[in-house]
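Re: that chain you flagged

S.,

Sorry for the slow reply, it's been a week of failed gels. I finally had a moment to sit down with the sequence you sent. For the record, here it is as I used it:
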Amino acid sequence: MGKTTIQNYLNSSRYPALERLDVIAKTADIDVAWLATGNDYQTSSSGKADYIKIPHFDVHASAGTGSELVESGINKNTVDIHPQTLLDQGLNPEGLLSMYVKGDSMEPSLFDGDMILVKKMITPFSILEGVYIFRVFNEIFIKRIQFNKYSAKLKVDSDNPFYDSYTITGNDLNDVEIIGEVICTIFSKVRRITRPTDESVSVN
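Prediction finished late last night. Pasting the structure tokens below so you have them in one place:
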């Protein structure tokens, strides 16, 4: 691990992915939960019995040009989340799932290798605005979107200005499935994914 990478971690300009976080914790002989959050969690004698299991999608949400969906890899595993993490974010574990980010199009909000918590879409919706996971055919994307059912338009943006925005309209929307809203990162320093400041959603 290079000095620049370590310095980025120390000054909070970037955070380690789950695999690297685990390596750092083992090398330094410290608790990975403390390293990730700064909180000294107390566990019962049953170890992980107090943790909440969240379904994990063994696919990557692409913050780039698209990540192919592997149907056999969906929802086969779980991740253990401490209840305090969910409490800090005001989250109910029902309807949550986790998955990895692939690519750089959502930097600086999300980085390649980040694990994210996603709140699944359960109820019907007409208007959406925020960072969402969605599927087009057999590919999964993570993007900042604006959707208005009444104007039949889905505007797709990347936080990284290198990537162009685009709009999905009309019958092409039939090929889009909104999976859920990205809430925060986990197993790195927890970062809440903020919503846009505008209260109204307007897709022109």
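What I noticed first: Confidence is low (pLDDT under 50) at residues 41-46, 66-73, 196-204.

Talk soon,
D.
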